[in-house]
Specification:
Structural class: alpha+beta
Number of strands: 12
Shape: elongated
Number of helices: 34
Distance between the termini: 109 Å
Strand content: 5-15%
Length: 921
């Protein structure tokens, strides 16, 4: 690795030293910067060719340098002859100006060490391209080593040489005298140019029709650089010491043979015995074998044979050679036309440029890029020609790599981006916008390409705006998001609102709809959808465009419209548009389809949300009921649904009628999770263990000093007796008064279910609609809400033990006034409305008692009792049992029906008495 680096370093150092030593001190270096060694050319390839630039204008040039050290081996006389010959050739070239001759940019300059002059940019000599690499840098440049001539390049190159000779012979009356591959230079664009006029011969009578040329005799003792290349000389030079324009045509024939035979001339010449070699060559030319020209294309083989003829009169002249069918190739003709464009008027140019796109695909890329492209871009200075040239330039750009596009095309396109006239320029750029955005660097897109699009949107021409709006969606994915959000979208909206053209407005909406997928959701909701409500016109096409944007936004998986926006803005706007009188039936149906889809999704999303909230509330309630935080029972406030039920009856907030629910659907409302059932089972086990414990002794109540009954009373017996008395009082048949509007129900005997304020049967959430047997007193009652234990009353509500009245005591007890003072302690101090003694019946004056008179007689007691017993199984959660602080929710689970239970699921009074005994002792 180190050896390779050292070798590379030595090579670079050597090249730099060669350049420095060769050019140092030469006046050419004052104005031109000399670059790297790229090729060689001229007689014997003695000129080294360097690339360079002019210091003042940065114009690219080629610097030809002849190092005098290369001829140090010769004597001074010979060295002077060589230098004089080279100087003569360059000076002659400098005086001649023609497109087929190498153009000199700076005349020959001589210094002590070298000769140097500058020309147009050069690629290499034809000899280098054909494989002769003498006097080339080491390592060999890859572009020369791999260079292969295309057929169109060969044809047009030979045509150019023929045209150059025609100029010399007819225009200047000059014979080149040394036409060979070393003196044919390929410039940077690939054109073939003639140089090396070291041995040119001018006519002695240029004014006469028949020029005469004086030829020098061959001097074999001169250095090779002082003699022309004998392998390309006509036989008459050596054998008869004569020459004319036909001698150059022989040289052209040998050059054509070399081009098609890998650089090999027709004959090899022994330079030490030149006369013998030419004599033998003359014999071979007189009887030329067909195999000698077998590699030359058949269509030009006959012409080459004529050019190599021994008789000069048989050889075609240069002007005739330019007209042979071999050069009528479409590529060669195209290239020839480009070289003569400066002679054409605008009409001829425009016709040529219109047909050029059909020819470009048939030409090699190198020819198109380095030969045709420079000619096209040179026309950008003519605004009238830009609309004809620009499509061809962009067609070439499609075949170029990004690096080639940036280096060769973009610098010339940059000024055209800013041209606003003629308007066709903008149209062409818009049609190729995807190409520009793909290959143009980001900075140039922001500074040149996108401003052109913005100008198109703001152009006064409706056609330009329409085309721009139609094309924008095709390259929207290539525009960076900030530019689209801050620059493009506002201009599209402005064009839609400010235009008076219906087509522009509709195309603006269509354009927005197509580029929605490249925007983010909230930008669309905040900027695009509110903009739709600002559009003033109500034409059907505009309305359908608005509908399309709503539909795209609503249905796109990345975008979507939130239900809040649907409910508050989108749907009201669409509904108002849907009833516009300009819409036909199909358009109205399209509106309704979108509106229904929006409503369906909004309903589904909101219903899902409410169901989730409801489930969370139910779970929270079950947790509060199953896990009380303290010894006191945790009470939840009445829900909003229960309050609404109080006002509007049994129709709940969910829109379902509680009373109309079938019994089969009731258990679904109170279904418990597995965890809740496990907790209830554990609590039941704990309650069973408590019942098995020894009963607590009842506390005795000290009698008052004024009380006549000084004997201690058993609380349990008093409760049972009081309940029996209350039940017997409630059986008295009386006319039921009309219920007042509210939640309090008067106690009355009836065999029908108790009815709520709205006329629907009351349910407690566990059993079918139930009826109540009033215990002789008015009690607050609330219909059940949608919750499991909704509508609970305060703990101070009067407990109802009427359900235990089936096991009645002796009949005579009903006419006896029981003493209920023992129950007074069960009431809170803030609501001792009446004592139980006052509520009890008076046996002495039962008919005159105002409280008992509302119950009427008790003659139908037994039938009513039977009806009431069946209805007490579903007592409302707010009526008595849940209000009792001694009852817990798990006691309401429904066990299997046993013999001790009636069909309604309620225990007989015997089990109820046992429960009371367990509780009170």
């Amino acid at each position: 690795m180190e050896s390779m680096l050292n070798k590379l370093k030595s090579t670079v150092t050597k090249v730099t030293a060669d350049v420095t030593s060769a050019v140092m001190g030469n006046p050419v270096t004052r104005e031109f910067e000399v670059g790297r060694h790229i090729a060689s050319g001229g007689p014997g390839l003695c000129w080294r060719i360097y690339n360079g630039t002019k210091k003042s204008t940065k114009q690219e040039v080629a610097v030809f340098v002849f190092d005098k050290k290369t001829v140090d081996k010769y004597q001074k006389f010979e060295r002077d002859q060589i230098i004089d010959s080279l100087k003569r050739g360059v000076q002659q070239l400098t005086r001649l100006r023609h497109p087929r001759l190498l153009t000199v940019q700076h005349p020959l300059e001589e210094s002590r060490d070298c000769l140097a002059f500058c020309t147009e940019p050069v690629f290499a000599s034809l000899s280098n391209v054909l494989g002769n690499w003498d006097n080339l840098p080491s390592p060999l440049p890859s572009d020369i080593k791999e260079y292969k001539l295309y057929d169109v390049e060969t044809k047009y190159g030979l045509l150019q040489i023929s045209e150059g000779l025609s100029f010399l012979h007819s225009g200047v009356k000059m014979v080149h005298g040394n036409l060979c591959p070393e003196n044919i230079i390929l410039n940077k664009s690939g054109s073939w140019k003639i140089m090396g006029f070291d041995f040119s011969i001018s006519s002695t009578n240029p004014s006469d029709a028949e020029p005469k040329y004086t030829c020098k005799e061959w001097e074999p003792n001169l250095p090779p650089l002082c003699l022309p290349n004998p392998e390309y000389l006509a036989p008459e030079y050596i054998l008869s010491v004569s020459c004319d324009s036909a001698s150059d045509m022989y040289s052209l024939g040998v050059v054509m043979h070399a081009v098609f035979n890998e650089g090999k001339p027709v004959f090899k010449v022994n330079k030490h015995d030149i006369f013998k070699s030419f004599s033998r060559q003359l014999d071979q030319l007189s009887s030329m074998s067909p195999s000698l020209l077998n590699k030359i294309p058949e269509e030009v083989r006959e012409h080459v044979k004529m050019l190599l003829s021994v008789t000069s009169n048989v050889r075609p002249d240069a002007d005739q050679m330019t007209k042979i069918p071999f050069f009528d190739d479409v590529g060669a003709v195209t290239l020839q036309y480009f070289d003569s464009l400066f002679q054409r008027d605008n009409l001829q140019k425009s016709q040529f440029y219109k047909g050029l796109p059909k020819v470009l695909p048939k030409l090699p890329k190198r020819v198109v890029v380095y030969r045709i492209l420079p000619a096209l871009t040179s026309e950008f200075v003519n605004p009238d020609m830009v609309p004809f040239v620009l499509p061809n330039v962009l067609l070439i750009a499609e075949e170029c790599t990004k690096e080639e596009y940036i280096r060769l095309i973009l610098p010339d396109l940059a000024p055209v981006f800013k041209q606003q006239e003629p308007i066709q320029i903008l149209l062409i750029f818009l049609q190729k916008m995807d190409l520009l955005l793909t290959k143009t660097p980001t900075d140039d897109i922001k500074n040149s390409v996108l401003p052109m699009v913005y100008r198109a949107l703001e152009a006064p021409s409706v056609q330009i705006q329409e085309l721009c709006l139609n094309i924008i969606p095709t390259f929207a994915n290539l525009i960076d998001y900030p530019s689209m959000k801050n620059s493009l979208i506002p201009r599209i909206k402005s064009a839609c609102l400010q235009t008076s053209s219906l087509a522009v407005r509709v195309n603006s909406l269509v354009c927005l709809g197509k580029i929605l997928e490249y925007l983010d959701k909230w930008f669309v909701i905040d900027e695009i959808l509110p903009f739709l409500q600002q559009i003033p016109s109500r034409e059907p096409a505009v309305l359908m465009g608005i509908l399309g944007i709503y539909k795209c936004t609503f249905s796109h998986k990345k975008l979507g419209i939130p239900k809040e926006h649907l409910a508050s803005k989108s749907l009201p706007h669409l509904v108002s548009l849907s009833i516009d009188n300009n819409l036909n039936l199909n358009q109205f149906n399209s509106f309704m389809v979108v509106i229904r889809d929006m409503l369906s999704r909004m309903e589904a999303e909101h219903k899902t949300k409410l169901e989730q909230l409801h489930l969370m509330q139910e779970q929270q309630r079950s947790i509060n009921i199953s896990n009380p935080g303290s010894s006191e029972e945790i009470k939840s406030p009445p829900s909003t649904g229960s309050q609404i039920d109080d006002i509007f009856g049994s129709t709940g907030v969910n829109g379902k009628e509680n009373a109309s629910a079938t019994p089969a659907s009731q258990p679904n409302r109170v279904s418990l999770t597995l965890e809740e059932k496990q907790r209830l089972a554990k609590e039941q086990e704990q309650a069973a263990k408590l019942r098995k414990q020894q009963p607590l002794a009842p506390q005795t109540i000290k009698p008052n000093s004024t009380s006549t009954n000084a004997q201690t009373k058993d609380l349990t017996s008093s409760l049972l007796n009081n309940m029996t008395s209350l039940n017997s009082l409630s059986l008295a048949k009386t006319v039921r008064p009309a219920p007042t509007q509210g939640t309090a129900l008067s106690a009355f005997p009836t065999s029908t279910p108790v009815v709520g304020s709205m006329g629907t049967p009351v349910s407690n959430g566990f059993n079918p609609p139930i009826g109540f047997q009033a215990g002789g007193m008015g009690m607050g009652m609330r219909p059940t809400g949608p919750g499991l234990y909704g509508g609970m009353t305060n703990t101070t509500s009067t407990p109802n033990f009427g359900a235990f009245a089936q096991n009645q005591g002796p009949t005579g007890q009903t006419n006896k006034a029981p003493d209920m003072s023992a129950l007074d302690s069960l009431f809170t101090h803030n609501k001792p409305k009446v004592t139980l003694n006052q509520m009890g019946p008076n046996t002495a004056a039962g008919a005159n008692n105002a409280w008992l008179s509302q119950f009427g007689s008790a003659q139908n007691t037994q039938p009513q009792m039977q009806g009431m017993a069946a209805g007490m199984g579903g007592v409302s959660s707010g009526f008595g049992m849940q209000a009792n602080p001694f009852f817990s929710p798990q006691n309401f689970s429904q066990p299997a029906v046993s013999p001790s239970m009636n069909p309604s699921g309620i225990k007989h009074s015997t089990s109820a008495n046992n429960d009371l005994n367990d509780l009170f002792g």
